[in-house]
C-alpha cells in the first residue's frame, strides 16, 4: 500500500514543508527508482562510462601499445592529440578531417534524399486504390530492411566485385542481348579515376572529381537498404489520411500535384519527421555499409567518421598511437552530440508523458 | 468528373473500366520493376549457392541454374571450418546463439526495469540519467574499443566460470523450452481441446512422449557438446577411425598389386608375341632371299640388267635385309631387353604380394590392439553417462508428472476463468491465488531442478573433476606442465644475458671451490638433464600415436641437417691449405651455394697448378680425383644442367605423348617421365631454398624461443581444459621441449669439455673471461625485458582467463550498445501506456511488481519484441568487437566465419562464392524470418516507442 501513496503523493506540491525537508523527501522517494535502475547502471558503468572516461584520459596522453602494461604510465601531452586530429596532422596517408566530415555530411544528405523520395513514392503507389497483390509487394519491399546489414553489406561488396560481381555480370549480359558496349570490368570499389570522362571536355561535374566510383556503389547499396523503412513509415501515415479530403479536392478541381503538396505532404509530415531524424542518425553512423563494402577506400575517399575512428584504431595500432584515436573519437562524439541534441529538439523524445 | 455526367452511361462505364485496367497494368509494371531490383541480389546469392557448377569457374550470369545441388550447404553444416582450425558449424552456431540470446535477454531484462523507473517515477537525477542514456545510445561503438579491450584484459574470470556459464544458460534454455511446451499443453487442456477427443489419453501420452523425448534428445545433445564427450569418446573415436582407414587402404592395395601382376604378364605376352612375329618375318625373308637372288641371276643371264646386284650380293644378307626390308628388325634388341624387363617386373610384382599381405595382417593387428582400450574407455564412459541421463530424465518426469497431476486434477490451469469469477473479487480469489502461487512455485522449482541442478551437476561431476585433476597434479597433463616449466627455465639460461651471469658465476665457483668441484657440478647437471630427456621421452609414448606433423617435422629437420652437414663437410675438407680455407670461408659467408661451386673450381685449378710443378705427387692426384668427383656432383646439382636434362626429358615426354596415341602401353613410361620431371623441378626449388636453409642453424636460438612461445600460445588456452589434450599432443610440443633440453645438454657437454681442456685454473679463468667479454652486458637487458613483458601481459593466466576472450565477456560488451537502446525504446513505449490502468490496479490492491508484470509488460509486448529482436541481431551479426575480443577458434562466432570466407577487403580478393553465398543465406534466414514474424510490432515499436513525436 505504501507504494500507492508514494506515487500519488509524488505529484502533489508540498508547500508547507521546508526546502530541506522536501529535498530529504525527494531523496527518499528516489530510492526505489534508483533500485530499478541499479542493475543497468552497474553494467553501463562498467561497459560504457568507465571506457568513456578512460578514453578521455587517453586523449590527453601519448598512450600507446606499451602502456597496456600497467607499470609504464603514459605522459600527458595536453591538447596536442586534438590539434593533430583537427589540422590533419595524423601521420596517415590521405587523412583530412574536414574532407571526411564534409563527405559524411554529403553522404548522409544524398542518401536521405533518395531514401525519403523513393520511400514516399513507392508508398503512394502501394496505397493506390484497387491495387492487386498489395500484400505481396509490401512483403517483398521490406526485404532490404529485414536482411541484417552485416550480411547484406558483404553480399553487396561481392556484387561489386570486378570479375564475378553481379553488377558487372549484368552489364555483360546487357551487352550480349542488346549489343551495347557497357564496360564489364569496372573496378567499382577500387577505381580512383572519376567515373565519367568525356574526351575533350573531361568530367562534366566537379562532384565526380571529388567523389570516386566507390561512393556511387555505396550509394546504390545503401539506397537498397534504406528506403524500405521510409516506405513502411510513409505507408502507415498515408493510410491514416481520410479519402474524403482527396474527394473534396477533386470536386474543387485541384490537380494531383496540388493535392500532393497541400494534403499528402502536410499530413504525413508528423510521421516522417521522426523517421527522417532516425534515418539521419542511422546513415551518419552507418558503420556496416561503408566498412564492409568499401572499407573506406579507395585511398580513404569514402571514409566516414565512425569508420575512420575504427580504422584509426587499427592503423595506428601499428604506430601505437591510441591517444590520437581516442582524441578523434571524442571529436566525433561531440559532432554526434550536436546532431543528437538537434534530433532531440525536433522529436522531444526525452519528455516524460506526464509532462507532455 | 464533369465528363462523366455529360457522357452516356454505358460508354462511361466501359471507359472507366478500360481506364482502371490500364492504370492497374501501369502500376503493376512499375511495382514489378521495383520488385526485380529489390530481390535481384537475393536471387543472385541463392542462385550461386545452389549452382552445381561451382565457382570460381562461374563467370557468367545464371539466375536459374539448370542443375541445383545443396553441396555447399552440406559442406558448411557438416564439415569443419579449416580457417578456424576445424571448429564445427554447430560450435559456431552455439557460440552465436549464446551471445545473441544472452545479449537480448540481458538488455531487455535490465532495460525493462530501468525504463519503467524512467517512465513512471519522478526522482533526482532522472533527466540527467535519461539524457545520459540517449547520449550513450548515440555513441559509436568503435569509440570505446581500446578502453574496453584494456579493461576486459585486466579482468580475470575463473576458467570454471566461463565454461559453467554456458552450461547454466543452456540448461535454463532447455528447461524454458520444455516449460513452454508444457504450458501449451496445459492451455490446450484449458480449452478442452484434448479432453473431449476420443483418443484423449493417447493424445496425452503422445504429448508426454514428445516432450520428454525432446528433453532426452536435448540432453544427449548437451552431452555431445560437453568436454567429457570430447575427451572420452570423440577423440578416441577419431583415432580409431583413422586406424581403420589405414587398414582399409592396405586392403585396397592388394587388388592393385594383383592387377599389376596381371598387367605385367600381359605385357610380357605381347612383347613375346611381337618378337615371335618379327622372327618369323625375318625367317620368311631369309627363306625367300636365295630364290630372289637366283631369279635376279637368271634374269641377268637372260640379258636383263637388274640394278643393285652388288648390294644384293653382299656377304651378310641378314643385315642388308634388315636395312632394306623391315625397320622392325632393329627393334629385336629392344624386344629382348623388354622381355627381360617384363619378366623381372612380374617377378617383383609377385614377390610384392606376400609383403602386402603381411602388411595387412600387421595393420589389422595394430588396429585391433589400438582399438581395444578405446572401446573399453568408450564403454566405460557411456556406462557412466547413460544411467545419469536416464536418471535425470526420470527425475524430471517425476517432477513434471507432479505438475501434470496438479494441472489435471486440481484444475488450476486458469483459476479465474475456470471458476467464472469476476476479476476484482479479491476475497473469493484469495485461495485460488494461493494455489496459483503454489503452481508457480512448482514451475520455478521445475526450472531450477531441471536446468540448473541437473546440468550443473552433470558438468560438475563429469567435466570439472577432469579439469581439477589436470590442474592440481598427477596425470600426463601435470608432467607436461612441469616439462614446460623446465624448458622455460632452461631457455632463460640460454639467453645471452643469463649466460653471461652464469659464466661469471662459474668463474666465481672455480675461484672459490676449485676446478674439480665445478666439473663435478656440471656432471650432476648433465645426468639431471639426461633424466629429464628420458622422462619426456616416456611421456611421449604415453598417449599413443605420433602424428604426421611430428614425422613431417622430423623429415624436414633431417633434411636440413643433411644439407648442413654437407656444407660443413666441405668446410673441413680442404683444411690442409690454410690460405684457401680463409678465402673459402669468406666466400661461403657471402653466398654459400655459389661459393661452394666456385670454391671447388678454384681449388681444382690450384691443385692442377701444383700438379704441374710436381707431377708425381700421389696425394695431390688423389685430392684432384676427389675434387673432380665433387665438381661432377655439384654440376649435377647445378640448375643449368638440370635445365638441360629437363629439356631432354621434355622432348622424351613429347615423343611419348605422340606415341601414346598408337600405343596404350606408353602411358606408364609417360608417367615415369612425368615423375622424373616433377622430381627435378622440386629439386630445383630445393636448391633455391638452400641458401636460406644453411642460415637456419644460426637462428636456432631465436626459432626455438619463438616456437616455444607459439606452443605456449597454443597451450595456454587449454590449460585447465584438458579436453583438448589429444590435440595438444599433436602439436609436437614434446619435440620442442626435447630440443631445448638437448640444447642445454650440448651446452653442458661443451663446458665439460672446455673445463677438461683447461686443467690449469688460471688458463680456464682466462678462457672464461674471453667468453664473457663476447656476451652482451646488462645495459641492453632492460630494453629486451620490456619487450618480453609486453608479450607476457598478453598471455592468459593458468587457472583464470581474461574476460576479454570469453563469450560471456563479449555478451556484456555488446550490452554497451543494446542496453541504452533497450532503455530508450522501452521507456518511450511505456510512456504511451495510460497511467490510469496502473492506478486502477493499485487501487484494487495489486503491488508494484504485479502491476509491472501483469499490466505493463503484457501491454508493451511490441516494444519488448522489437528490443529483443534488436538485441538478438546485435549479437548475431556483430563482427567488430567479436573480432577484436575472441581469440580462440572454438569460441568464434558465425559472423566471424562469414567475414572470413567473404573475401579480402578493398583488395577484392575473390572468395569461394558458393560457400559465401550459402553461409550468407544461413545467417540471414533466422533474422529475416524473425523480422517478418515481428514486422507489425517492429514498425509500431520503432515509430511509437523509439521516436515518439
What's the quick description here?
The complex is a heterodimer of chains A (356) and B (949). Chain A is mostly helical and 356 residues long.
Distance between the termini of chain B: 39 Å
Mean pLDDT across the residues of chain A is: 79
Oligomer type: heterodimer
Q: Beta-strand level of the residues of chain B, as a percent range?
A: under 5%
Helix fraction of chain B?
over 70%
**Which class of secondary structure composition applies to the elements of chain A?**
mainly alpha
Give a description of the structure:
The complex is a heterodimer of chains A (356) and B (949). Helices cover 68% and strands 0% of the residues of chain A. Chain A is mostly helical and 356 residues long. The longest helix of chain A is centred in the first third of the chain and has 41 residues. Chain A starts with a helix and ends in a 9-residue tail after the last helix. The relative contact order of chain A is 0.12. Helix content of chain B is 81%, strand content 1%. Chain B contains 36 helices and 2 strands. The longest helix of chain B has 79 residues. At the A-B interface, helix 1, helix 2, helix 4, helix 5 and helix 6 of A face helix 2, helix 4, helix 5, helix 6 and helix 29 of B.
